[in-house]
Write a structure and sequence with these properties.
The chain has six helices and twelve strands. It has 248 residues and is an alpha+beta fold.
């Protein structure tokens, strides 16, 4: 390729989101129900109070292209979040993939949901074949230097958190399966409850008061309950004044 002086930036010369493949039908590990629902819950409760919603991007099972020297290499995190970027690609289009040399911002946190076939790779316990792309752990730690890496085992309902310390990940000793992340003014933890009519342990976000961030459905239920209680108080006040409310 012709080299200019000064050299052009990777954003100008390397493939864009539109040039790179966004799916591979032959790739193993198609999402099961848990891998569809758990990322959705993370999406619905990830609302950092110090970031506008249009400056946050979250994705699950989306190709993450990370190496401008090998532009066809990618990983597919179960869930990840990026801070300070437009929710839409170049503020105009839904993303087909996330291409770091086009976006200019690396993910802030990535979550992997363990399954028997991916556990060793997700935990960095596999050796790399030098003729193959690096494993997830190495990409997140060395190539992208993602500050936080969370792992949730759906079978043991075990939550582990790793934080980038210097040049490598260090595991954090968790208290009550919760971890506070000051940069986003949110914490991540294990919640036992019902989501999408399924009761089990889930990974979700909580706020500075320690309360779980509500999903849109939970918010609507809360508003309805508050309105019901307000109406009951009004009826009680009227009756205390000797006024019997008239049913509409």
């Amino acid at each position: 390729m012709y080299q200019t002086d000064p050299p052009l930036s990777p954003k100008e010369v390397l493939p864009t989101m539109y040039d790179l493949k966004s799916e591979d039908p032959e790739e193993p590990g198609l999402p099961d129900q848990f891998h569809l629902l758990q990322p959705r819950l993370l999406d619905e409760t990830f609302r950092p109070p110090n970031y506008p919603s249009d400056e946050l991007f979250t994705a699950s099972d989306l190709n993450l292209y990370y190496d401008p020297r090998h532009p066809l290499w990618y990983k597919r995190p179960d869930w990840f979040a990026v801070l300070g970027v437009s929710r839409l690609y170049e503020q105009r289009d839904l993303r087909l993939s996330y291409v770091v040399w086009q976006e200019g911002v690396n993910p802030f946190i990535v979550v992997e949901l363990l399954s028997p076939g991916t556990e060793k790779e997700d935990l960095g316990q596999t050796l790399r074949d030098v003729e193959q792309p690096p494993r997830k752990w190495e990409v997140y730690e060395q190539s992208l230097r993602i500050p936080y890496y969370a792992i949730f085992d759906r079978y043991k309902y075990e939550f582990r958190m790793f934080k980038l310390d210097g040049g490598s990940y260090s595991e954090i000793e968790l208290t009550e399966s919760r971890f506070w992340i000051p940069e986003v003014q949110l914490g991540l933890g294990v919640w036992q409850g019902i989501y999408q009519d399924v009761e089990q342990s889930w990974l979700r976000w909580y706020d500075e008061t320690g309360n779980w961030v509500l999903t849109p459905v939970e918010q609507e239920r809360q508003r309805a309950e508050q309105e019901r209680q307000r109406a009951e108080r009004l009826i009680a006040q009227l009756r205390s004044l000797g006024v019997e409310p008239v049913d509409q």
